[in-house]
Amino acid sequence: MHRLLRGELFMLGGFVVAAAVTIVLVMPPSIDPAAASWTQTSSGPLTAADRDLLIKVRQAGLWEMPAGEYAQTRAEAQRVKEVGKLIMQDHMKLDLMTRQTAKKLGVALPDEPNADQQSWLAQLAAESGPAFDRDYANLLRAAHGKVFTVVAGVRAGTRNAEIRKFAEQGINFVMRHMALLESTGLVDHNQLPEPPSPSPAPPVAMAVETRRHI
């Protein structure tokens, strides 16, 4: 009787082991969704965020270059004309860098601005004089603030050497353009997004127990 019971238990254990092995072989391993979107390159892993950076910088140039051209004929203030020309020239350089980096890394780039950018261009194309000056300064300043956070975030975490170099150069262009736009005196800072709230400060241990009771 005991031998029969031991035999049955042995067979049951064998079935459990076989079932476990079958599950391991059939079920796919758990995959990190972020890692699954990475591409290996000679300069390191290329992430979805890296690719998105190149796309966003490309699209920024595709609307800011024609906007700079508009500034030469539609702006009233001389400073807006100057700023428009400088930003347009910078974006021509940055666009070349973007296309070169994208080609090295095999990233496909768009050939037109996104829907929001196209609507901003249409708005500027319909304006002239002080209305153009005001909207040019504020539309571009708001857009640069958004792309600044993208470039900074990618630079902080990218694993790719080419993207690291590109982000360093790109962030310098963005900061320069924000300062140029603000130099027109037309940027309404009250309309810009609120800075992120700071993290709560950690509690301080009562000044080391009030200096150990003095």
UniProtKB/TrEMBL annotation:
Q: Does the keyword Transmembrane helix apply?
A: yes
Which organism was this protein described from? Nonomuraea helvata
Q: Which UniProt keywords apply?
A: Membrane, Transmembrane, Transmembrane helix
- In its UniProt entry, what is this protein called? DUF4142 domain-containing protein
Query: Which Pfam families would you find in this protein's record?
Result: DUF4142
Q: Where is the DUF4142 domain?
A: 49-179
The transmembrane segments are: 9-27
The family database entries (InterPro entries) matched by this protein are listed as: DUF4142, Ferritin-like
Could you tell me which Gene3D superfamilies the record lists for this protein? 1.20.1260.10
From the UniProt annotation, give the residues forming the signal peptide: none
**Taxonomically, which superkingdom?**
Bacteria
